[in-house]
Structure formats: structure tokens, C-alpha cells
Design a protein that fits this description.
The complex is a heterodimer of chains A (122) and B (647).
Chain A lengths: L1 E5 L3 H13 L3 E5 L2 H10 L4 E5 L7 H11 L4 E6 L4 H10 L3 E4 L4 H13 L5
Parallel strand pairs in A: 1-2, 1-3, 3-4, 4-5
Helix pairs in contact in A: 2-3
Chain B lengths: L4 H67 L1 H8 L3 H15 L3 E5 L24 H9 L3 E7 L1 H7 L1 H7 L1 E2 L13 E2 L2 E12 L2 E11 L5 H11 L3 E2 L2 E2 L1 E7 L2 E5 L16 H9 L4 E7 L2 E11 L5 E10 H52 L16 H67 L5 H29 L6 E3 L1 H19 L2 E5 L7 E3 L1 H18 L5 E10 L7 E9 L6 H4 L19 H11 L3 E7 L3 E9 L6
Parallel strand pairs in B: 15-17
Antiparallel strand pairs in B: 1-6, 2-5, 3-4, 5-6, 7-8, 9-10, 9-13, 11-12, 12-13, 14-16, 17-18, 18-20, 19-20
Helix pairs in contact in B: 1-3, 1-7, 1-9, 5-6, 9-10, 10-11, 12-13, 13-15
Classes of the chains: A alpha/beta (122), B alpha+beta (647).
């Protein structure tokens, strides 16, 4: 699958890349919401990993826009600080899944699987 | 109704002054009047003495006149010489000089000689006698005093006198009635002095004043004793000579203003003075007015009571004194009342001033202003002052407490802010750490996937992985801690808590048509827990159960005392919530307590409920587990340690 990862933290992007490329997915990495939009415009991705807390423009906003423009996209929201508020906001804008940082490769893959099959994985 | 203290003070003052004033008015005027009357009475008594002196003086004049002439040898010689004329003319001169009404010469037999030419001459017939002459003859000595003269005698002496003597009795109030309507006799001051020649009485000289209708004596009395004082046009002082009980000489006036000649004295006085011979002093009604009066009997030359001497003082004057006194007293009372009202108001304001200020200050304090801008410093040296001081002290202690509380709450606020900021700091730090930690965790796991690792390297990597897991848990714990609310544990009756929570969701169950029942266990000891947090856990699970169940289904809650693991382990309470819903698919059961997990639609649930509930239960040292079967239902089991036990 074509996966776009959006996070202002390079190490996290690196993790996503290593984990997902190992599985054979094609991963593109961007560091901000604007770059993500630009990338999507060039070549829409099927799955996005979006970090919520980003400077300039936060992940929630990005999710909203992505979902508006490319409704078929599945979005996994990543957050280092999970609160009910964050979850609520994410759900409202249409995020499909959530994952809390830090995560292990297994956890991430499980979430991706769940997105892909929209149901049981393993 | 509100009766202000000021009103009470003023009314009290007023009442006191009014009562005091009235009492002193009544008592005072009465005392004053009584003493004035007493004084007046005494005075009248003295006045009577003075009147008597004047009466006697008049007699003395007669005496002197006659004495001079009778003792003059020339008179006797003239008589022997038979020169009666001479004596008569001398006598006449003396008579006029002395103002006597009559005078004459009398034979040794007592018969008065005719007056002169042209005078009627009475020869023969019964001699008309002058009592003074008679007595003087029998005693052969001069006689002076009051006499009663018969109408005939008077006529003999002078027709005018006889006319004068005639007094018609006028009916008067309170007088004793008499049969005669007219009096003819006369009362007179008279004297007779014998003229001696060679030791023998050759003749007598006599003279006198008719008191009937006389004005000189009574007016002299009035003028001398009473100084002719008048009161409202009437004379204050009056004098009267009575012939028996008939007023014959007086300056008591009738309402028409004439002398009240002919009026009679009251029977009471007549009895006392004329009949019994007593002096009389009292207030009496004289002709037309009330007088303070004094009466004494007049005795004739023989010692018989023939008349009454009277002086009287118009009582009205004293009545007016009483009225004036009354008025003055009333004025004083009113003045007193006015003063007392003024004093009362002044006193009230002095007293109430501080009280009002105190009231004002109290109002301000209850309105919330703990430093009322009211000057409470001018404290009177009295109970009010103490009240003020106490009020200020109380206010000060209230302010102190307020300050302390504020300080405490500020400290608390500071602390909670600190906590919050620490929390935020922690969260921020944790958040920051999470990113690089992701890297560590991910790459360690990725490394562990490799198949070409030497055993020692693998082992070392596993150590790193475990350590990193520990770090993850620590960070998660830190985040949870910074998010959590404080725990206020207390001994809790689990059954009661379940019952009250069931009560909260009963309606929803009813509306949805789900049977909700609670089967409490017995003898469950108290659990040390924060009741509101446990209640929110129960609510969470109950609501989930209700949501999962269709109408017609049921949700059953049980509680029992149970050890953690069937046989051994710490004792606790096991709560089960069983629903007959659709059940939970096995793949979701593991994710159930995932903070983000939710099978609900967007916007319906937060998915955070069960993870928070688990957190709460775990913080209490308990556990939650789930069993479920698709199509049959699910059972959530909460276990909490009992008091003193740990999970």
C-alpha cells in the first residue's frame, strides 16, 4: 500500500518507514501538514499516519481536510498524549484509528491491519 | 411594629415629666392654696382686731369730747348759774367738732333737756331714756360704750336720725329669717358723763354716734386695714357692723353696687357669734361673694351682746392666686415636658448615635465589606462602648480568619497550580520523551527480528527491550498520574453504592424495556474506596450493559465476598454485571480497555470509559475482567479488596 506518514519528529518518521517498508509497503515521509497536502495532491495515498501535535497546523486540522478532499483515505492518528478530548476531536474529524506513542512495530502493524480489513486482524 | 429606642427614651422622659408635673401641680396648688388661705385666715383675724381698735377709737373720741366738757368747772358753774344755754352751745360746738350725731344735757333725773328754741319740749309723759345716761346716773360715773337706742329716743334727738335708723330687712340667702320687716331701733356708740358740783351730780352731758347707716367707721376700717385695695373693681376688704343679725353699717356692696344695708347674717354665724358669743373665722358667703371672714360680738354697756363686728377679705383674690399658681404650674409642666422631650432627643441621639453607626457597620459587613468605612472610634464609656469594642474585635477576628482562609486557599491554589503545572510539565516532558522513545522501542524490536544475531547480542538486545518497556510504562504511569484526580478513600458499603447507582439508571432501563436487578450478597465488609470514582466505574459498566442489551433483555448485578483467586489470596468484594446482549467479539475483548477503542459511531462515545474505569479500579488495588459469548451476553467482573486487604 501507499502510505504517507506525517510527523514533525524525524525519529518517528524513521520508525514508521522501517516498520512499514519491512512489510512491503511504499512509505512517503513528510514533516508538516502543508507538505502532506502537497504530497496528496501530487499522488493520493491510501493510508495516512498523522501525528496530532504538530506546529503551525495540527493533525486534527489536517485530518479534516484530507477527509474532505480525499474521503476514501484511511487515517491513523498518532499521539503522545492520549486524552478523551484528543480522542473525541479525532473521531469528530473522521479518523479511523488511533495509536499511542510510543508503540512497538507489532502494535503499529496491528493497527494498519485493522484499518485495511476494517475488522478482525489476527 | 418597630419602636425605635429614641422614641422609647423620649416617651419615658415625657411620661416622667408629665407625671411629675401633674402631681406637683395638683399637690402644689393645693398646698399653696391651703397655706394661703390659712395665712389669709390669720390675717383676717388680725384685721378684726384692728377693726375693733378703730371702733373703740371712735368711742374714745366721744369720751374725750364729753370728758373735757364735763370736767370743765366752767360747765358746772354755768349750770349753777342757770346758764344752760351756754352749756348747750358749747356742747353743740364740741359735737360738731367731734362729728357726733347727737349730744345733749340731761337732768339728774335722766331726762334730756330740750334742745333749744323751737325744739320740741317734752314735759310730762314717760321720759325717753338714753341707756348710757341711765347707767351713768346709777353709777355716778362716766359711761361709754355701745347702746341700743329706741326709735322714739332717736326721733326725740333728731328726726333724721330716726329716719336713718329705719332699716328694712332685705331677704338674704342663708340668713335666719326674722319676723320684723323693718327695724327702727338704732345701734349707737354713746357716752354720758356726769357733771359734778360740790360732789353732787348737777347734770349729765351725753353724746354719741348712730351706727345705723354710718359709713365712717367701716370705711375707716377699710381704708386703714385694707388700704382701700380693690380687686376687679371690688374692694378686697370689707367691714360691717351688725345690729343683732341685721347689717346696719357696711361697705359690703350689693350686686347693684350699693351698700348692703339691711341684709342679714347667716344663721350659722349668728348662732355662733351672737348667741354663743364666740369669735368666728372662716370663709363665708357674704351677700354675693365668698369672703374670708372674721366675726366677733359687740357688747353693749350692760354687757349684753347686741351686735357683731365683721371684717372680710374677698376670697376671689386668693382664688385667683390659686388659679395663677395653677397656670404657672401648668406652664412649668409644659416647659418641663418640652425640656424633657429635648433632653430625651439629645440623650437618645447621644446613645443611639453609636448604635446606628454600629448597625450601619453591620449592614456593610453582611453586604460583604469587611472593612466598613465607618468611624467606630468615638466609643462612649458605657455598655454601648463595650459593644462597639467587641464588635470591632469580632470584625477583626473575622477579617483575620478571612485573611487566613484566603492565604490558605491561595496556598492551596498555588499548590494545585503547581501540581497542575507539574502535571503539564510532566505531560509535556512525557510527550516529548514519547517520540524518541518510539524510536528506541521500534528499532530495538526491529533488531530483535533479525535472524542473524549471536546469542549474547540477542540476549543483550532483549535486556534493552525490557528496559525500554519499563520506561514506556513509567511514562504512561506519569501521564496517567498527571491526568488523574485525587483519590478520597473512605469505608464504603458496596451494596449501598450499587443500589444508589442502580437507582440512577433505573429509568433508562425502564424506558428501554430492560429488566434491571440487583442481587446483593450478605455480610460484605466495607471497602476502602473513593465512592464517587467507584460510582463512575459502576455507571460506566451499567450503561455499557444497557447499551449492549436489546429490549426484553436483562441486566443482572450481583455482589459477594470473594477471594481474588478461588481458594487463596486477599479477601475482597466481587461484583458481576451480566447482560443478555449481543456479546463481544473475541478480537475486541483484548482491545476493550484500550483508551481509543470504541464500537460506537463517531460522536457517540469516547471509548475512554473502560480504560479510565480500569485505571480507577487498579488504583484501588482491584481488577476488572470480562467474559463474553456472542449472542448470549457478557459479564464484567470487578474485584475490589476489602478494608485492610490489598489486591
Amino acid at each position: 500500500m501507499k502510505i504517507l506518514a506525517v510527523d514533525d519528529e524525524p525519529i518517528v518518521l524513521q520508525c514508521c518507514q522501517r516498520i512499514l517498508e519491512d512489510q512491503g509497503h511504499a512509505v512517503r515521509l513528510v514533516g508538516s501538514a502543508d507538505e502532506a497536502i502537497a504530497a496528496m495532491k501530487l499522488d493520493p495515498f491510501e493510508i495516512l499516519l498523522v501525528d496530532i501535535k504538530m506546529p503551525v497546523r495540527d493533525g486534527i486540522d489536517l485530518v479534516r481536510e484530507i477527509k474532505e478532499k480525499w474521503p476514501k483515505t484511511s487515517i491513523l492518528v498518532m499521539t503522545g498524549y492520549a486524552t478523551s478530548e484528543t480522542v473525541r476531536r479525532s473521531r469528530i474529524v473522521g479518523a479511523d484509528e488511533f495509536i499511542a506513542k510510543p508503540f512497538t512495530p507489532e502494535e503499529l502493524l496491528e493497527k494498519i491491519c485493522s484499518i485495511l480489513s476494517k475488522g478482525g486482524c489476527r | 411594629m418597630f419602636y425605635s429606642t429614641r422614641l422609647k427614651i423620649v416617651v419615658s422622659f415625657l411620661a416622667v415629666s408629665l407625671i411629675g408635673g401633674t402631681v406637683s401641680l395638683l399637690v402644689g396648688t393645693r398646698l399653696l392654696y391651703t397655706s394661703v388661705l390659712n395665712e389669709a385666715g390669720m390675717r383676717v383675724g388680725l384685721d378684726l382686731n384692728a377693726a375693733r381698735e378703730i371702733y373703740n377709737n371712735r368711742l374714745q373720741e366721744i369720751k374725750t369730747t364729753l370728758a373735757v366738757l364735763s370736767q370743765d368747772p366752767a360747765t358746772a358753774l354755768a349750770f349753777r348759774a342757770g346758764d344752760v344755754q351756754r352749756i348747750q352751745s358749747r356742747l353743740e360746738i364740741a359735737r360738731k367738732a367731734a362729728g357726733l350725731d347727737f349730744a345733749g344735757i340731761s337732768t339728774p333725773a335722766g331726762a334730756p333737756l330740750p334742745k333749744g328754741e323751737g325744739a320740741k319740749n317734752r314735759d310730762g309723759g314717760a321720759p325717753v331714756l338714753n341707756p348710757a345716761v341711765e347707767l351713768a346716773l346709777s353709777r355716778k360715773a362716766p359711761v361709754y360704750g355701745t347702746v341700743v337706742l329706741s326709735p322714739e329716743y332717736l326721733k326725740f334727738e333728731d328726726q333724721d336720725l330716726a329716719d336713718r335708723a329705719r332699716i328694712a330687712a332685705v331677704p338674704t340667702l342663708r340668713a335666719a329669717s326674722r319676723e320684723e320687716k323693718e327695724e327702727g331701733s338704732g345701734l349707737a356708740l354713746a357716752g354720758a358723763a356726769p357733771v359734778f358740783l360740790d360732789g353732787k351730780v348737777v347734770c349729765l352731758l351725753y353724746g354719741g354716734i348712730l351706727l345705723n347707716r354710718d359709713v365712717t367707721i367701716v370705711d375707716t376700717i377699710r381704708d386703714t386695714v385694707f388700704h382701700n385695695e380693690t380687686y376687679k373693681g371690688r374692694n378686697i376688704g370689707t367691714a360691717t357692723i351688725f345690729f343683732e343679725d341685721l347689717r346696719i353699717s357696711t361697705n359690703v356692696l350689693t350686686p347693684e353696687g350699693k351698700r348692703a344695708i339691711g341684709t342679714r347674717i347667716s344663721a350659722e354665724v349668728k348662732n355662733a357669734v351672737l348667741d354663743e358669743g364666740r369669735k368666728w373665722t372662716d370663709r363665708a358667703f357674704v351677700v354675693n361673694d365668698w369672703y374670708l371672714t372674721a366675726y366677733e360680738p359687740i357688747e353693749d354697756i350692760r354687757g349684753e351682746r347686741v351686735g357683731i363686728l365683721y371684717v372680710g377679705v374677698l376670697e376671689e383674690k386668693y382664688g385667683d392666686i390659686r388659679r395663677n399658681a395653677f397656670t404657672i404650674f401648668i406652664a412649668l409642666t409644659i416647659l418641663g415636658m418640652g425640656l424633657s422631650v429635648g433632653l430625651g432627643l439629645f440623650l437618645a441621639s447621644r446613645i443611639m448615635g453609636p448604635v446606628y453607626r454600629l448597625i450601619e457597620a453591620s449592614k456593610q459587613v453582611s453586604a460583604g465589606n469587611l472593612s466598613p468605612p465607618i468611624d467606630l472610634d468615638r466609643a462612649p464609656k458605657s455598655e454601648i462602648g463595650i459593644l462597639q469594642k467587641t464588635f470591632q474585635e469580632m470584625l477583626e477576628s473575622v477579617r483575620e480568619r478571612y485573611r487566613r482562609q484566603k492565604a490558605e486557599s491561595e496556598i492551596q491554589l498555588l499548590q494545585s497550580e503547581k501540581q497542575a503545572s507539574i502535571g503539564r510539565l510532566a505531560a509535556g516532558v512525557a510527550h516529548e520523551i514519547n517520540n524518541p522513545l518510539t524510536g528506541v522501542l521500534t528499532f530495538t524490536h526491529l533488531l530483535l527480528r533479525r535472524k542473524d544475531l549471536p546469542e549474547e547480542v540477542r540476549k543483550d538486545l532483549e535486556t534493552v527491550a525490557q528496559a525500554t518497556e519499563r520506561v514506556r510504562k513509567i511514562i504512561k504511569g506519569l501521564l496517567d498520574f498527571s491526568r488523574q484526580t485525587a483519590l478520597y478513600p473512605e469505608p464504603l458499603n458496596i451494596n449501598n453504592l450499587v443500589r444508589s447507582t442502580v437507582a440512577l439508571v433505573e429509568n433508562q432501563a425502564l424506558v428501554k424495556g430492560i429488566l434491571l436487578k440487583f442481587e446483593p450478597g450478605e455480610n460484605i465488609p466495607p471497602v476502602t474506596a473513593d465512592s464517587s470514582q467507584i460510582q463512575s466505574v459502576l455507571m460506566n459498566i451499567f450503561l455499557n450493559a444497557l447499551d449492549a442489551t436489546n429490549p426484553g433483555g436483562s441486566v443482572t448485578i450481583t455482589s459477594r465476598l470473594q477471594s481474588l483467586s478461588e481458594k487463596a489470596g486477599p479477601r475482597g468484594v466481587e461484583l458481576t454485571v451480566t447482560d443478555t446482549g449481543c456479546g463481544i467479539p473475541p478480537e475486541n475483548i483484548t482491545k476493550l480497555f484500550d483508551p481509543f477503542f470504541s464500537t460506537k459511531e463517531v460522536g457517540q462515545g469516547t471509548g475512554l470509559g473502560l480504560s479510565v474505569s480500569l485505571g480507577i479500579v487498579e488504583r484501588h488495588g482491584g481488577t476488572i475482567r470480562v467474559e463474553s459469548e456472542i449472542g448470549k451476553g457478557s459479564t464484567f467482573t470487578i474485584w475490589l479488596p476489602v478494608e485492610g486487604q490489598k489486591g
